[in-house]
Amino acid sequence: MAKKKTAPVLRAQSEDPTPETPETPVITKSYSVRDDWKDKGVVNYVAFKSVDGEVQDLTVNGEPAGGGGDLSIARVVITNNRTGEIDINLAEIIEGGFIGTYINGPIHLAASETSNHKIPLYQGSNRTLFMGTAAVTGSISFAEGLLTVSGDGTITVS
Predict the structure, then answer these.
(1) Which of 14, 27, 36, 119 has CA 20 to 30 A from 51's CA?
(2) Do residues 103 and 120 touch, judged by C-beta distance below 8 A?
(3) Claim to verify: residue 55 and residue 121 sit in the same structural domain
(4) 32 pLDDT exceeds 70?
């Protein structure tokens, strides 16, 4: 009988304050996940670090993920001006709490809710299809149903 697969747990390995200048400390956190697939005989080791909230150096089994593409974060404020709930199929970085730091999605907003989100960008952008009407600012575009986040900005859904 095959053993039951359990979800990988993301753990911070270290939290090293490294001062950039005596007045401005830089906080670096390192994370790793062991992704164990016993039924397939595969184990993946995923690691990355976060420097002052910016995700860097994502590796899988010691190799740069995605051929060495860059991973960064956009800070996005989303407002739902609709009378009902919405889901936007963007992943976001969740920090703190019982589980620690992890990536989750889609983003869910209640009616008339405004919230802040950290959106991971791979090679400079994160895209999703969105059926509806949205006004965007900053480094976000929305055209013909394609919502593209390439940096900080706002999304207002109406």
Answers:
(1) 36
(2) yes
(3) no
(4) yes
